[in-house]
Amino acid sequence: MSEEAGRERQEVGRRERLFLVVVDDSPERAVALRYAALAAARGGGRVALLRVVEPPGQTEWAGVAEMMREERRAEAEQLLQGLAAEVNRIAGSVPILYVREGEARDELMKLLAEEPAISVLVLASSTSSDGPGPLITALTGRYNRLLRTPLVIVPGSLSDQELETVT
Question: Which of 7, 64, 67, 136 is 20 to 30 Å from 57 by CA-CA measure?
């Protein structure tokens, strides 16, 4: 992370609430993103986006693994840039972007421990009958005692109008 990003994080910590959204591939991600952007806009806060990519599997050549790693990171950065434009349109500020490699739950917990400026974690629950989703299940269960950041769980089925009403 650059010095500029470090200064930016310190400034955010002093002035405003920082809403973190985990960018996964679920359809509910859009609901969490919109909720966080609206809440940031109305409350003078800012949004941060975290994308966690899987590490490359075991390969025989280190060059192949590094190439896979670079491709995944580039894809993550491209996705985050697109979502950042949407957040900027709604919230009126450019979000802070994080790309991590590893398991989503573990990288999320590390980021929360490293970044005291993050004041709210926003996740949207799954609309499927399989349960709220793996991160919500972990954070409201076994990992709840480790969580030191307020967790907002937004119903994944909320419409844009409903999100406008609740933020």
Answer: 136
